[in-house]
Structure formats: C-alpha cells, structure tokens
Amino acid sequence: MTSLIGNEAPQAAFAAALSGGALHHAWLIAGPEGVGKAQFAKDAAARILARGAGESERTAAMLAAGSHPDYRLLRRVPKDADKPEGELARSIKIDAIRGLQAMFATKPSMSDARVVIIDAIDDVERPGASNALLKNLEEPPAGTIFLLVSHAPGRLLPTIRSRCRLLRFDPLSDHEVAGVLRDQLPQASAAEVAALVRAGAGSPGRALRFAGLDLAAIEGDLAAIATDGDPTNRLRVRLSKALGLKAAQARYEAFLERVPAFIAERAQVMTGPALRDALDAYAAATDLARVSIAQSLDAGTTAFEMGSLVARLARSR
Which Pfam families does the UniProt record give (predicted)? Predict the structure, then answer.
C-alpha cells in the first residue's frame, strides 16, 4: 500500500478494500503519535485520487503543491496568519469544517472520488466543529472519503467512532525503529541510534525529534545515576550546567520528556518496596516535567531535581 515500515496489517486491510471496490466512506486511522499514520493517510489519498484519473505522478505533484481540487487537508493553523511559523491554534475550528461544504456541493472534478484528511481528528473543537463533522459522516457527501487521523480515539465522540471503519496502527518494534533511524540519520553513531530507539518507545517520529541532541550522553548519565545514586552530585551538576544554558533549550525539553519514561522502564523489573519507590519517582518526574515549561522554572535547577528523582532508583535497589 505504502513504503511505510511496520503495521502491515492495517495497510493491507485498506489496500484490500480499495482494490475490491468496497471502500467505506470514513476511516479512523488510530494509534500512537509518530508511527506513520499521517503519511499513510496522504499515501492513501494519492491512491484514491489517482485511481480514476490514471495519472499517479500528476496527482502526487498536485497533492504536494496543495492544488488538487478533490483533496482537503485540515489541521491546526497558526494563530497569527501573518506568522506562518508561529504558534498553532489549540484546535481545528468549526469554520474549517464548514468550509468543506463548497467542495461537497459539486461533483469530484478530476477523480472518481474526493478525499478529506483531518490530522488530527483529536484537535477538532468540541462541541461545534465535532457536531458539524458528524453531520457529514452521518450523511456522507457522494464520492467523498474521510481519513481521520487520531492519537487518542477513546476521547472522540462515540458517534464519530461508530461512523468509521477502524485502522489501528501499533508501536513499531525496536528493530523497525532502528531501521528508520539508520535510513534517516546515516551519520548517527550506534550509541546514538540505540538511545533514540529507547526514547522513541516504538515511535520513529518521536525518536527523530530527539535527533542531533546527543541523547546518548544524557542516557549515559541517567543510567549511571540510577545505578550508584551519584553520591557526590557530580553527574547531576553536570546535567544542570549543560541543560541550564539558553542554547540548550531543545535538549533540555528532550531531557524533560525522557526522564519519566526512563524511570518507567527501570520500574518494569522492580517489585515490592522498590517498585513503589520507582512509581513515586515516576509520578514526581511527570509532574515536574509538566510544570517546568509552563511555569518557566529554572532549567538548571529542574535538571538537578530530575536527576535526584532518578537517584531514588539506586536507593531502591
């Protein structure tokens, strides 16, 4: 169906429906972030739109340029239209859903069908925009296929889920994630790839967000602190100095995201009081990571405190 790595079953299920001429009008493409759902939706749209036109290369070029008349991609847009690289709006507004009606009022102009991708359906504003979309799913415009990308399908309106056929995408294996990373980052060292695989937790997209941030060095320090507790504070001070710099903001944010997951991984092999202590450390690290950016906490101090939470794992051994 596509060149995506992993999740062959949902790709094959969609390909079978497409080739069999029994394509449902709405598909919920659900799973963790960063496993290829959005790319699958775009590839699927290209296949659907090229099927009638018979011009796959031309269709692909028009989709890439955003000029295909039978295709719409809805996603969050920048809050300030004059700043396309600025902060995105919190949701997909009802005006975006209503804006589809002009396309629905006519027949597909170049293909046998038209395709609407919403990436992600989780971002559609409730209740107004969700209800407007639901009307289109309940009474689908002729010749229209909806591809709805979701990272958290359980949070969607049950009535939206019930109108869709589910394609579930699962986390990739470590081997598959490593393959994607080696392809995308041919210059990365084996240690860096291994660190990114652990940080990705089955998501190549998440792993690639950490690329170039020397995550291997952070992983090494965290592992050492978890093993011996860093009794002289040497490693925690080093993390504090390195991550407290203004130029290290991206690396600092990656560290905040990584530490709770690191603690959770170590907790998987613990039992009894040690497990309880690790779970407490995980909860504290999750809370600290959540508030540190929102409240502009000092990065160096926060990094040191995070290291101290990891040090609890050594005391629990």
Answer: DNA_pol3_delta2
- CA-CA distance, 268 to 291, in Å (whole number)? 25
Q: What's the pLDDT tens digit per position in 251-277? A: 999 999 999 999 999 999 999 999 999
User: Residue 315 is which amino acid?
Assistant: R
Question: Which letter does DSSP use for residue 208 in this model?
Answer: H
- The Cα 239–Cα 221 span in angstroms is 8
- Alpha-carbon distances, residue 7 vs 161, 178, 199 (angstroms): 21, 15, 20
Give 293's contacts (C-beta < 8 A, 6+ positions apart). 253, 256
User: Which amino acid, one-letter code, is at 267?
Assistant: A
| pTM exceeding 0.90 | no
pLDDT of residue 53: 53
Q: H or E element: which one contains 59?
A: helix 56-65
Q: Say if strands 144-150 and 165-168 run parallel, antiparallel, or are unpaired.
A: unpaired
pLDDT computed for residue 148 by the predictor: 97
**Is 8-168 CATH 3.40.50.300?**
yes
Residue 83, exposed/middle/buried by CB under 10 A (0-12, 13-18, 19+)? exposed
